[in-house]
UniProtKB/TrEMBL annotation:
Ligand binding (ATP): K587
Keyword annotations from UniProtKB, A to Z: Aminoacyl-tRNA synthetase, ATP-binding, Cytoplasm, Ligase, Nucleotide-binding, Protein biosynthesis
PANTHER family: LEUCINE--TRNA LIGASE, MITOCHONDRIAL, LEUCYL-TRNA SYNTHETASE
Organism listed in the record: Candidatus Jacksonbacteria bacterium RIFCSPLOWO2_02_FULL_44_20
Pfam family, any one: tRNA-synt_1
GO molecular function, one term: ATP binding
Motif 'KMSKS' region positions after renumbering to this chain: 584-588
Domain Aminoacyl-tRNA synthetase class Ia residue range list: 411-610
GO cellular component, one term: cytosol
Protein's cellular compartments: Cytoplasm
Protein name as catalogued: Leucine--tRNA ligase
InterPro entries from the UniProt entry: aa-tRNA-synth_I_CS, aa-tRNA-synth_Ia, Leu-tRNA-ligase, Leu_tRNA-synth_edit, M/V/L/I-tRNA-synth_anticd-bd, Methionyl/Leucyl_tRNA_Synth, Rossmann-like_a/b/a_fold, tRNAsynth_Ia_anticodon-bd
Keyword ATP-binding: yes
RNA sequence: GCCAGAGUGGUGAAAUCGGCAAACACGCACGACUCAAAAUCGUGUGCCUUACGGCUUGCGGGUUCAAUUCCCGCCUCUGGCACCA
């Protein structure tokens, strides 16, 4: 039994004393030899570390330690994303100040993380809730404000009834709060926004330049939701008014039979008093406006609408199209008005059905159907050939789209436009535990930014946190003792705080220069370390955090603070670790594994290796308390196989361990390649294969070879199980840390086999195998194959119709 | 509904520019050591079959000398989006 506790404590203490993992920008180390390996920093919850945390941290730690052994200068920091609602809610429940509980949680997290032996540079630790940090978060707000990328407006916003605050669009999941799953309603409020939409196209373009999982890129693309179409303007018959619709399907415009506008659209507001059907319209609009956007979007609602009394003229064919108002059309999408083509759009079809509107077929059905469209199944949306469409007849829809778009533009009836689903980022929160928004309101001067030199705007302590729907800061007495920076008169501060995603959008820069008091980070240090070479974390941040951080990066690039505009060159998502029962780990299910218990019982090295051995890094994997025993046995075996003192003699014949030497080189190759591609599970399997073989042969080895094998193996093991590797390394007479030693290199000539095994198949079924020289010619291999005893038995009395030989791999005889 | 990703032994999984399916590990069984147990070591372990052999990568087709891998259709699960015009 190896004593993991004393070994692990010993080395963790030594690494800390020697400050082994602290790095600085060194002029003599060129930029190409530096790497920045980053974990998504944790939210220090009261529950403490979860086994999911060390999964990602172990992977980046293995990778960082490996890179150092390959001679790289590695920045690998850790910090705390410590502002946010859960801390505040916890504080309310427990009757403590969120600062107190958060600081305590950080202590726990730090201790737990340090117990696992990660090679973080702790001198760079950051905490987003500390004034030294949030001072710069506030600076970023001013940065956006000055660049005209932050603005305040009154808008319908999403409001969580339980958290009692507004949420970003990204934080509303299926009409519910992403955090607490409570109902989200809509409110009209004056709020601060970041103009992320200005970067929509660049956020889309940039995805093509980065090495991220395709699934994440796709999610971001969908979220940005670029759609290219045409804004077509129709005149209203008998008036001087026009209505402009946005459509991505101008090709079906010969099939247009009505126009629908959103009840809250500018068109309705402008023309309200002019509609001939005034009374009906007023009634419908009033009831529609009482519903929230979320209610209007509720699934399965029967579409309703009201006729305005107006007709729009379709210039293409002179058709008079009735203009309706309906709440299935949203003012926030496109122009807030759509042209109804009920034959080829399911929503338009449903609307036409309930209101008994005309339906015209303009695309031939997939099965050649050209009958009139009366059933939803006949509504063909995405492919086909045009019909009943004048000059477009016979064209495939995409060609028709090109032609008619040109035609519409040439006639001045409309023009090409691009729309995005992405909305501006709502950053105000009506809660306490966040960075105050650095704005001052003066009765005479209006809104003014807090001067940079007055930052930070400190969070006051004379506050009652109980959520009332109003920011707790509103009722602080000390907080609002402020003078207008313009006229000097007594003013009030903005009392909302910033969304915590603002804090986490720029932390990667701060790590390069965490103590800087005059800038968020110096340009020189950012230029040296950034961008982040490898970023690892959970896929739950696919859209929000990762999109916001990319937006910040592009804004900084435009302001010439940095020379790159994508913050994370490579991204890898870790898979979820689920409970032994196959369910997601949660307190209520009682299936939570506490890493502290695992470290205490099995050791940090064992926890690290087990988490890596469980399965592919990016897949979800269930925890197995029995499975971890296998890793413990492996470490135990390694510990016993290595001599405690460095002088023991061995006797043996060279020929006996040639195969072991070959296996060593294969192992070096496999482990090296697997670390680089984050396939830690198979790297560990390979190490086990080596150790199993080594165990069988070790008594026959001479001292020189014994040392060769153990030394090289320990180097491979070191990034995975750093404590035991350091310990055994020091016991074999080394005084320097194993991590100061170069990573072993394999030699291709040791790996190549002189003789190879070729499988012999008959009709595709393996029936035997032959050993041949690597470069044996085909006729020789075939004759060897035929003379194989078992093969010959199967071939006896049968006619071989065909012989296949794939060099060095396989022989296949095809028989009748 | 739409878009991704995944389905392989009792379990976690391995092998996919087509070439011996199940490496490595867990578990289980038997054996050694032990008074005994644990630990450790050894042997075995996809399914059917006494054996010869046959069958097997969610289901059904196809291409190929050869398919877990490629193509077509379906089923299930996970994640994301959801009246975006």
């Amino acid at each position: 039994m190896y004593d993991h506790k004393s070994i692990e404590q010993k080395w963790q203490k030594l690494w800390a004393e020697r400050r082994s993992y602290e790095v600085v920008e060194e002029d003599e180390i060129p930029r190409k030899n530096r790497r920045y390996v980053l974990d998504m920093f944790p939210y220090p919850s009261a529950a403490g570390l979860h086994v999911g945390h060390p999964e990602g941290y172990t992977a980046t730690d293995i990778y960082s330690r490996y890179l150092r052994m390959r001679g790289y200068h590695v920045l690998h920091p850790m910090g705390w994303d410590s502002f946010g609602l859960p801390a505040e809610n916890y504080a309310i429940k427990e009757g403590v100040h969120p600062r107190e509980s958060t600081w305590k949680n950080i202590e726990t997290f730090r201790r737990q993380i340090q117990d696992i032996g990660f090679s973080y540079d702790w001198s760079r630790e950051i905490n987003t809730a500390s004034p030294e940090y949030y001072r710069w978060t506030q600076w970023f707000f001013l940065f956006f404000y000055k660049r005209n990328l932050a603005y305040r407006k009154k808008a319908p916003v999403n409001w969580c009834v339980s958290c009692q605050t507004v949420l970003a669009r990204e934080q509303v999941v299926q009409g519910r709060c992403e955090r607490c799953k409570s109902e989200v309603i809509q409110k009209e409020l004056e709020q601060w926004f970041f103009k992320i939409t200005e970067y929509a196209d660049r956020l889309l373009q940039g995805l093509d330049t980065i090495d991220w999982p395709e699934s994440i890129k796709l999610m971001q693309r969908n979220w940005i939701g670029k759609s290219e179409g045409v804004n077509i303007t129709y005149t209203i018959d008998g008036t001087d008014k026009t209505v402009t619709v946005f459509t991505t399907r101008p090709d079906t415009n010969f099939g247009a039979t009505f126009i629908t506008v959103a009840p809250d659209s500018s068109f309705v507001k402008e023309c309200f008093t002019l509609f001939p059907e005034q009374a009906n319209v007023a009634k419908y609009v009033e009831s529609a406006l009482r519903k929230t956007e979320l209610e209007r979007m509720a699934e399965g609602r029967v579409k309703t609408g009201v006729f305005t009394g107006w007709y729009a003229i379709n210039q293409l064919n002179g058709k008079r199209m009735p203009v309706y108002i309906s709440d299935f059309v949203f003012s926030t999408v496109g122009t807030g008005a759509v042209v109804g083509v009920p034959g080829h759009d399911l929503r338009d079809f449903e609307f036409a059905q309930t209101l008994n509107l005309e339906i015209i077929r303009v695309v031939v059905g997939e099965d050649g159907d050209i009958s009139s469209i009366t059933r939803a199944e006949q509504v063909q949306e995405e492919k086909g050939v045009m019909i009943n469409s004048g000059f477009l007849d016979g064209l495939e829809i995409n060609r028709a789209k090109d032609q008619i778009t040109k035609y519409i533009e040439e006639n001045g009836w409309g023009k090409r436009v691009t729309n995005y689903k992405l909305r501006d980022w709502l950053i105000s929160r009506q809660r306490y535990w966040g960075a105050p928004i650095p704005i001052i309101y003066c009765d005479s001067c209006g809104e003014a930014p807090v001067p940079e030199e007055s930052l930070p705007v400190l969070l006051p302590d004379d506050v009652d946190f109980l959520p009332t729907g109003e920011s707790p800061l509103v009722r602080s007495k000390s907080f609002h003792k402020v003078l207008c920076p313009k006229c000097g008169r007594a003013s009030r501060r903005e009392s909302d705080t910033l969304d915590t995603f603002v804090c986490s959008s720029w932390y990667l820069y701060r790590y390069t220069d965490p103590k800087n008091t005059s800038e968020f980070a110096s340009k020189k240090k950012m230029a040296y370390w950034l961008p982040v070479d490898l970023y690892v974390g959970g896929a739950e941040h696919a859209v929000m955090h990762l999109l916001y951080a990319r937006f910040f990066c592009k804004a900084l690039y435009d302001a010439k603070y940095i020379t790159f505009d994508e913050p994370f060159t490579k991204l890898i998502n870790q898979g979820l670790i689920i409970g032994e029962d196959g369910q997601k780990m949660s307190k209520s299910r009682g299936n939570v594994i506490n890493p502290d218990d695992v470290v205490s019982e099995y050791g940090a090295d064992c926890l690290r290796m087990y988490e890596m051995f469980m399965g592919p890094f990016e897949d979800a994997k269930p925890w197995s308390t029995q499975g971890i025993n296998g890793i413990r046995r492996f470490l135990e075996k390694v510990y016993i196989l290595f001599p405690k003192s460095n002088h023991e003699s061995f006797h043996g014949q060279i020929s006996k361990f040639q195969r072991l030497e070959q296996l060593l080189h294969k192992t070096i190759k496999k482990v090296t390649e697997d670390i680089e591609s984050f396939k830690f599970n198979t790297a560990i399997s390979q190490m086990m294969i080596f150790i199993n073989e080594f165990q069988k042969q070790k008594d026959d080895l001479d001292t020189v070879h014994y040392k060769l094998f153990t030394t090289n193996f320990l180097l491979l093991l070191a990034p995975f199980a750093p404590h035991i590797a350091e310990e055994l390394w020091s016991r074999t007479g080394h005084t320097a840390s194993i991590f100061k030693t170069n990573w072993p290199l394999y030699k291709e000539e040791f790996i190549k086999d002189e003789t190879i095994t070729v499988v012999v198949q008959i009709n595709g079924k393996a029936r035997g195998e032959v050993n041949i020289a690597r470069d044996a010619d085909q006729s020789f291999v075939l004759s060897e194959a035929r003379s194989n005893e078992r093969v010959a038995k199967f071939l006896a009395g049968k006619e071989v119709k065909r012989e296949v030989y794939v060099k060095g791999k396989i022989v296949n005889f095809v028989v009748a």
